[in-house]
Amino acid sequence: MDNYLCLFYSNPMFVSVILDPSSMDSAKSLASVLLHFRFKKVQRACWEHSSISKDMLVLLKKEIDRVTDYYDIVRLYQYPVQDCLCLTELSKKRWKRCLLKGASLRPDESR
Length: 111
Prior knowledge:
Strand order of the largest sheet: 2-3-1-4-5-6
Shape: globular
Oligomer: single chain
């Protein structure tokens, strides 16, 4: 049990999952997976977890991949990943990832 908890809380990150399931069966399967990983439903198609580890995220993606079909879309927002916001999307059974790094302005710069 201690190893299981360690997977959740080592190097924690915030993860938000947005679901666009193709069917009610997919929606139920995805909700079940997210509940198993202790995500909280915050809106109709939005689930959040405030302290999930990278190792647990890998397991989550494998479970999501297992229960989805070709027409499901799942988008994950993760922070921090290499000090960036990471958007990961499962669409047409393929994962795509995008890292977004914000540009900081010096105090004397204006927009």
